[in-house]
Amino acid sequence: MPVPENFTTPSRISAKDRAFTQIQEWIIDGTLIAGEKLNDTELSKALGISRTPVREALQLLATQGFVEMYPGKETKVTSIEPKDISKVLPPLAALQALSAELATSVIDGKTIEQLRNINSSFAEAINSSDYYTALKLDEQFHKAVVQVVNNPYMTNIIEMLQAHVRRLFFYKAIILSETSINEHEQIIKAFENNDKDLAAKIMKNNWQRPNDEFCSKMH
After folding, report:
1. At residue 211, does pLDDT exceed 60?
2. 67 strand-pairing partners
3. Fewer Cβ in 10 A, N or C end of the chain?
4. How would you class 172 by CB atoms within 10 Å of its CB: exposed for 0-12, middle for 13-18, buried for 19 or more?
């Protein structure tokens, strides 16, 4: 099991959270490939922590669909295919649309300015074909909207689905385009105009469109 040796992680988090975050990142970016068997002893050694938090992290990753655990036998990374985009994006689109609807009545000028600045950087990344940076900025944009709602239940589900989106990006299923720049700006304007229905509609389309484009290419 190839595990990187030189990496840094935040120090002020629990061992379990540290293990969860790092192992999830390795699965998302393909360092740990689909179907690969995971050894908790090797992982604990690589992370510099005991096996208990590693096992706890693997259990959490299993509930979120990143690993499969067969007690007494093996633990391995779940498989993933580009077509899984159709399983991830529709529910995420619905939740993101709801977050935009709920955020409209409470969002403030400072957050709107933050969204516009993020979208400006997102546009620069798209125009320079720096798609990984664009992906991170797109996450920042949508996370800022979700945070306004202040609903931890929604936040947790969205973050889990968002992690699967990142994994699909590395499998070339998610393609970011200039269309998202304009959609982000329309969402911002809907917030400014206090138009919750329009904000929700555009937000849903912003997430559903990549799925529709992918499906059209498959037919």
Report:
1. yes
2. 77
3. C
4. exposed
Please state at what angle helix 40-47 crosses helix 15-28, rounded to 10 degrees: 110
- Shared domain for 112 and 57, answered yes or no, is no
Q: What percent of the chain is modeled with pLDDT above 70?
A: 93
Residue 166 to residue 154: CA distance in whole angstroms: 18
Would you state the structure tokens that stand for residue 193, as one six-digit string?
């105009």
Residues 89 and 27 in one domain: no
Q: Please state the pTM of the whole predicted model.
A: 0.84
**Final residue in a domain of this structure, among 25, 60, 77:** 77
Give the number of other Cβ atoms within 10 Å of residue 119's Cβ: 22
Question: What is the span of the domain harbouring residue 55?
Answer: 15-77
H helices present in the chain, as ranges: 15-28, 40-47, 51-63, 85-104, 109-127, 131-149, 152-170, 179-192, 196-218
Domain assignment present for residue 141? The answer is yes
Summarize pLDDT for 62-108 with one digit per residue, the tens. 999 999 999 888 999 999 888 899 999 999 999 999 999 999 999 99
Same domain for 64 and 164, yes or no, is no
What pLDDT does residue 36 have?
94
Nearest to 188 by CA among 172, 199, 204, 174: 199
Query: Domains in the chain: how many in total?
Result: 2
**Tokens representing residue 145 in the block:** 């909207």
